[in-house]
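Re: Re: ligand-bound prediction request (bumping)

Still looking for help on this. To restate: I need the protein modeled with protoporphyrin IX containing FE bound, output as structure tokens. Inputs repeated here so nobody has to scroll up.
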Amino acid sequence: RRNWPAGPTPLPLIGNLLSLRSPAPGYEAFAKWTKKYGDIYTFWLGTRPYILVSSYEALKETFIKDGETYADKKPMAFQEAFRGGSYGVVETNGPFWREHRRFAIHQFRDFGVGKDRMEQRIMIEVEDIFRNCDKTLGDGVDLTDIFDRAIGNVINQMLFGYRFDETRADEFRTIRAFFNFNSGEFASFSMRVQFFLPWMGYIMPGPTILDRFKKYQKGFTEFFGTQIANHKNEIDFELEDNSDYVEAYLKEQRKREKEGDFESFSTKQLSNMVLDLWFAALMTTSNTMTWCFAYTLNYPDAQKKLHEELDRVIGSDRQITTADKPNLPYTNAYINEIQRTANLVPLNLLHMTTKDTVLKGYHIPKGTGVVAQISTVMYDDEVFPEPYVFNPDRFIDEEGKLKKVEQLVPFSVGKRQCLGEGLAKMELFLFVANFFNRYQIVPDASGAPEIDKAKLGGMHTKEFRAILKKRHGEL
Ligand code: HEM
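Reply:
Sorry for the wait, this slipped through. Here it is.
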């Protein structure tokens, strides 16, 4: 330990892993260590040291200014076993990762992320949400269920070119069940431990994490495999325009194969890419929306302020578009505060140094675990006093304008910064602004949902229902 920056004392074999439970999901332990050891310290996952970078200033010096050094991901043996090798974009490294990340970003841009084309697609989902919500007026409704399909539709449309309409709602629910790591099988402490320390699976009772992943493998392979096979049969390879990501990928694959390259754009890589993109897009955006409703039900005064702004600036039930965004500072602040308080990754993804470097005077060899510890930055009580309190006004300046706060980093920073940030921001704005312009939400008879993650024991709310009241037109 003398060779690493100071940090909490690790226990034999499990390191500091237990601290993520005292209390869950670990924010407080990370905050305490940052105060005690500074913004660069060593955290042990099992027998391996990870250097945690836990202030915005330190992130700037490392992951941002010296991004290449922090760009690799730590290979996870069970991931590779599940995928059948090193595939996809979340877990891969080097030129292979870079090429596929670039290709995906390029395609997303072509499909209109950040532009009108994407906005129109999202607005179709907004209309669908309205139809579904209107059916429930006055009754309690599980909003997560309604929004999940909308969010799934946006990403499915981009990847495979179709949405799950009413007739395909069951198909969507089946796929979502594969990804529903928050409930049931992947929620136990044993699974969380094994996520970081897969070998613990062999000494802990019950199935190993790999067994559990494998159980879902068939379902994934079937769903994604069928989509890819259908595309192969249906697409017109001569057409220059692409209607979705899979089509663009298959054309690139064919082009490369003609040049004798059968490796870089393989079908196996394609199924892992769509798996990564589907998973990363659905779970994060869905969980953010769920926290949005949970916080809103607990903070009715904030909802009132949101309605006041919408009434003043929009003043009717017309569609709100991204053109309205600059005129809605409180709505933007509200979304910022949802992302900050939701704080989805208590311990961010595990990176690895690509070369030797020096941190705090310590020599850090190539291949060392490093983490951009964004959850500590977003709950830093010096930047965000009373960090657990939901208060959108933190993002409003004295003139009532939206304040830019660089410590708001829900999409992380550096070379691995979220690939779907543009898409997620557009969805969050259009969903939140349009939903709250149309409805007021109040808790059902069971009261507002619990939002204290320490009491919840993790990152997910219990299932809850809200009652919707329409704010414009006939009731
Ligand atoms: C509110 C929504 C979202 C949040 C809060 C979020 C957050 C994050 C975070 C914290 C990371 C880890 C970055 C790191 O390694 O330091 C990440 C990576 C990633 N996200 Fe997102 N994300 C969201 C939505 C999306 C969407 C909509 C997509 C896809 C369309 C997406 C695709 C990805 C991918 C592929 C990566 C891995 C990138 C790489 O390793 O190169 N995310 N995201």
